[in-house]
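Researcher: We're teaching a course module on how sequence relates to structure. For the next exercise, students receive a sequence and then see the predicted structure as tokens, so they can try to spot secondary structure elements on their own. Here is the exercise chain.
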Amino acid sequence: MICLFFIFGDQPLRQPWSVTSKFKDIMTISKKKLTILVNLILATVSILISFWTGLLFFVPLLFALGLPLVNIDGPLKKKVGLTFVIVLTTTAIFSMTVLTAISFDFDKYIFPGLLSGFAGALILGINGLLIDNVKLNPKTLLSTFIIAGLSLPVWIFLTEQIFPDSIVKLELVRQFGMFHFWMVLMTLGFSFSIDEKPTGNNS
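Model: And here is the predicted structure for the students to work with:
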């Protein structure tokens, strides 16, 4: 007890730990940080579910939930309606991007980069048109285009030149690693467009 007193002082007596206080701390996290966290979790969960089920559509379906879940304010009916539209359009953009990449194999780096960058900017644009907290301007769109556009070329370079064969040949990495890397970089691009207001502030 004496050791604990010297380590913590009188803080435990003055400010006892409680679920309520910790919940209040969580509620003060900015929407930008929470969006990044939720998107990264959904990106990881989506590829795991797709890998286990063999159904690729879970990747865009779950990843598309990140921005609207955190950033849409208002009544439940509005949230559900806008989220449905965003998920539907994001899945369509994702599917068209994959089909285009498969159908037109022009080169290894430039075309995949332009394609993934355009898709990332388009997904951000859809969210920005429907979500007030997602701010669209040339800077945010260009940032997302560049960052998302780097994902495929960088992933190709990493798997061919950097990563050992033991990692590259893993079924999960071989099938879904590129999609996960794309979603991670898209999330970083999206973060430039999110307001820093706390999650508890719906004004």
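Model: If you want an answer key for the exercise: The two ends are 46 Å apart (CA to CA). The chain has eleven helices and no strands.
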